[in-house]
Design goal:
622 residues; five-stranded antiparallel sheet; 58% helix; 10% strand
């Protein structure tokens, strides 16, 4: 069991309180040259408020043994009354504290607010008065205790309590909190017992009577067994040290210790004689002067400190942490809370600055959410468009080649999520196949929409018109309609008669193709291309015708091939393309395209492509 766990044990609490009592008795006897003044009573506050009834039990045991064994007290009545008075006097602060609650609800004994400060001062004043009353009826006859002595004792007790709170807070030691007590009568009767006990105590001050004292003690005992509010049993029992406590303890120690020791010295020197009414009144006036001179300014200052500094800081901290950690920030509520800080100092300026920062944070978060949602939406659209784009480019090369007197192969790779390059091939009739390769300007979803529209129109019109010039004429006019994005399409459309080898093609602003004939090398077809599609309506496109023989090959590509960049502003170019084609001219079509792709990647140092790539190669069978 560690040290902190020991303070949860009633046995340990009894033992530690007994040890504290013994130490204070020894200090009192040595310090005051055996002129006993009950210095150990100063421990009642800290033992009661922090360690509870078990601590008072241990304290009372030591007191009883000291009275009998050391002081030789043998009057049973005095012993019983004295012991009962000590026990009641010790437990009363603990009970009074937990009977009332602050704005924050029930709390363990603390010095974290002006309310807690006032509450402890009232308890201390009650203990001073009650101790003096008991002393007047019992102890005065035996030990000569008086009001000024109890003042000194309980002011010292207050200092010990404040220091004890600090120790408990720093070491995270749990304060002993109340346990549930069974209710045996109405609450008003408990309170009535307390009121009657106080009235009887004051009424019998000048007429000591053991019977009245027994009655007073019984009435106090009845009040002490009053059940507490059920919320008391839910409080956190770990001491928290706030700014208020730290400020108070530093000021209080300075202002209290000096006059307390001054009065202690005056008493020890015998300047004021006990029993002399005039001297006593003079001493009481001086004592009150010291007390008021210290307490009133301190109360005023701490009240000002709490209202002007501590509470605004706590409000600012609580509001900001609550709102910032909340997923749904209520900015209006935050504005109202921060505006409730009515002080006119730097804290108000800080709250206004924090409010502006919070507004900016909320705006930023909302903008970020909007941007994120927009980005997610855009990425979803891109993914869908990407799938559409690749789905529009056919890849059933082997199946298509089986049923026709030719071989073809295609390839398309986007440099971005959605590109504008495309190729297509399709059967027009039993003798003719159509093919197209193109590039739509721009990127993204609008580009894909134009791409899909272009490919669909070409397929439709190619089966309707026999002349490819007419096909592109109609396609161009359709693309020009509602072209609000001003996107353009460059393409090369061809038609190949697989029986005769006649090849017709129309170039609408596309790259010039390469052709290999008669088992020679690949050469560029240098016919001048027409205008881009979707640029201007009613444009006529010129048709070109050549004849392909068996093994003749046609290679089509987009500008992403020749414009591939190596990072040093050098392009792959037409020469490199022609060179790699001729190096692989006798290979299978898929190998030819793969070799071009590899050569481009090597040229670009395997960096990401700056533009889309599309290639289509067609070869007449033997």
């Amino acid at each position: 069991m560690n040290a902190k766990e020991l303070f949860k044990s009633p046995k340990f609490i009894v033992l530690i309180s007994m040890a504290i009592n013994i130490i204070l008795i020894l200090i009192g006897d040595i310090w005051f040259d055996n002129n006993y003044i009950h210095l150990e009573l100063s421990a009642l506050l800290i033992l009661s408020l922090l360690l509870g009834p078990y601590a008072i039990l241990g304290f009372s045991i030591v007191e009883l043994l000291y009275w009998i064994l050391v002081l030789g007290m043998n009057d049973v009545t005095v012993i019983i009354l004295s012991l009962s008075s000590i026990f009641v006097l010790g437990i009363m602060p603990w009970k009074l504290w937990y009977m009332t609650k602050s704005k924050r609800g029930f709390e363990i004994p603390n010095m974290n607010s002006f309310y807690s400060f006032a509450k402890i001062i009232i308890i201390v004043l009650f203990m001073i008065l009650q101790a003096y009353i008991f002393s007047n009826q019992i102890f005065n006859e035996t030990f000569g205790l008086n009001l000024e002595t109890f003042y000194m004792i309980f002011i010292l007790g207050l200092i010990l309590l404040l220091l004890g709170m600090g120790v408990f807070g720093i070491l995270n030691i749990a304060v002993y909190t109340p346990k549930q007590i069974k209710k045996v009568m109405p609450d008003r009767l408990y309170d009535l017992a307390l009121v009657i006990a106080i009235i009887l105590s004051i009424a019998t001050l000048n007429n000591p009577n053991n019977l009245c004292l027994f009655l007073i003690l019984i009435l106090y005992a009845i009040f002490l067994i009053k059940p507490l509010n059920k919320d008391v049993f839910k409080i956190n029992n770990i001491q928290k040290l706030t700014i208020f406590y730290k400020a108070f303890i530093s000021i209080f120690i300075i202002l209290i210790i000096i006059p307390t020791f001054l009065l202690l010295s005056l008493t020890g020197l015998g300047i004021y004689e006990h029993g002399n009414t005039s001297e006593f009144l003079n001493y009481l006036v001086l004592l009150s002067g010291f007390f008021l001179a210290i307490l009133i300014p301190l109360v005023i200052y701490m009240y000002f400190l709490e209202k002007q500094v501590i509470n605004p800081i706590n409000q600012l901290s609580a509001y900001l942490f609550e709102e910032i950690n909340d997923d749904d920030v209520d900015l209006d509520n935050l504005v109202n809370n921060l505006n409730s800080i009515t002080v006119n100092n730097e804290i108000k300026s800080l709250s206004e600055s924090m409010l502006n920062m919070e507004k900016e944070f909320v705006d930023y978060r909302e903008n970020l959410l909007d941007v994120t949602k927009e980005k997610e939406r855009y990425e979803t659209e891109l993914k869908l468009a990407h799938e559409i784009q690749y789905a529009m480019n056919p890849t059933d090369f082997e199946k298509f080649n089986e049923n026709n007197n030719l071989s073809l192969w295609g390839f398309m790779k986007s440099a971005h999520a959605v590109g504008g390059d495309f190729y297509d091939y399709f059967k027009i009739d039993e003798e003719n196949i159509g093919f197209v390769i193109g590039d739509v300007s721009g990127k993204g979803v609008p580009t894909t929409l134009i791409l899909v529209k272009t490919m669909t129109l070409i397929r439709d019109y190619a089966t309707y018109y026999s002349d490819l010039s007419d096909v592109l004429y109609e396609v161009n006019n359709e693309l020009c309609k509602d072209n609000v994005k001003e996107l353009f399409v460059g393409c090369l459309l061809g038609k190949l008669n697989i029986k005769t080898g006649e090849l017709c093609y129309v170039n609408a602003g596309h790259r010039k193709p390469l052709i290999r004939q008669n088992d020679g090398d690949f050469e560029y077809l240098n016919e001048k291309p027409g205008l881009l599609l979707a640029g201007m309506e009613n444009i006529d496109y010129k048709k070109h015708t050549i004849h392909l023989k068996p093994n003749d090959t046609l290679f089509l590509y987009t500008d992403g091939v020749t414009y591939a960049n190596d990072g040093n502003n050098r392009h792959y170019g037409e020469r490199n393309l022609q060179k790699i084609l001729n190096q692989n001219k006798d290979n299978e079509l898929n190998i030819i395209i793969k070799s071009i792709e590899d050569d481009i990647n090597k040229f670009c140092n395997n960096k990401e492509l700056s533009d889309d790539i599309a290639m289509l190669i067609i070869k007449m069978k033997e």
